[in-house]
Write a structure and sequence with these properties.
about 200 residues; about 25% helix; single chain; eight-stranded mixed beta sheet; 6 helices; Nucleoside Triphosphate Pyrophosphohydrolase; 11 strands; alpha+beta; three-stranded antiparallel beta sheet
Length: about 200
């Protein structure tokens, strides 16, 4: 897959919930925006960064360190909660990506936004923003926020060869969830749902 393919994919309507559903854990429901807003969620932005790798476009991900919190040790995108001064959730995504892994806005090409989604365990409303660069930028990791980074070829995500159910520990106990498996890492939950919508753009 190429940057041309990526740009063409974003010229069509977003798959939205249909893209999320394949990777949606069984304990989640598709909620309307009004229902989510009624929960007074925290707002967040994440950056879905793609770059040219050995197998075409690759998606940059990071592993959270183990800590006392809902998303301890999980694979995620760079991103976090909105702060005054961000201006927008896209601004949040850029700020957090710089703070966590050293991605500089000036070095990234903005491609578009994916659909918002709601994360019930942590009560977050999240907006994902897609960016591109010709190569993986030199990363500078914030050790308190990032254990390490990884990247997965977009072609592998789209052909769903990495997808299978697995058991994970959640806020609700041990549950079987759909997940991507890549070199020992398990990508599930909101991160997998975002990747699911991204892959649906190419189907």
């Amino acid at each position: 897959m190429t940057i041309t393919d990526l740009k063409k994919a974003f010229e069509q309507p977003l798959p939205g919930i249909k893209g999320h559903q394949l990777l949606m854990p069984s304990y989640r429901n598709a909620l309307r925006l009004e229902a989510v807003q009624a929960k007074s969620p925290r707002r967040a932005g994440v950056l879905v960064h793609l770059f040219e790798g050995a197998q075409g476009l690759e998606v940059l991900l990071m592993k959270r360190p183990v800590y006392e919190g809902t998303h301890s040790g999980q694979i995620s995108f760079p991103g976090g909660g909105y702060e005054e001064g961000d201006g927008s959730l896209q601004g949040t995504a850029y700020r957090e990506a710089f703070e966590e892994v050293g991605l500089c806005k000036e070095d990234l090409l903005s491609i578009g936004a994916l659909s918002w989604l709601y994360i019930p365990p942590s009560n977050f409303y999240v907006e994902p923003y897609v960016t591109y660069s010709e190569q993986c930028p030199e990363l500078v990791l914030e050790e308190k926020e990032v254990a390490y980074t990884l990247s997965i070829p977009l072609s592998k995500i789209c052909d769903r060869s990495l997808l299978r159910d697995t058991e994970v520990m959640t806020k609700y106990g041990a549950l079987k969830v759909p997940a991507f498996h890549w070199e020992g890492d398990v990508i599930w939950g909101a991160t997998a749902m975002i990747l699911g919508e991204l892959s649906a753009l190419f189907s």
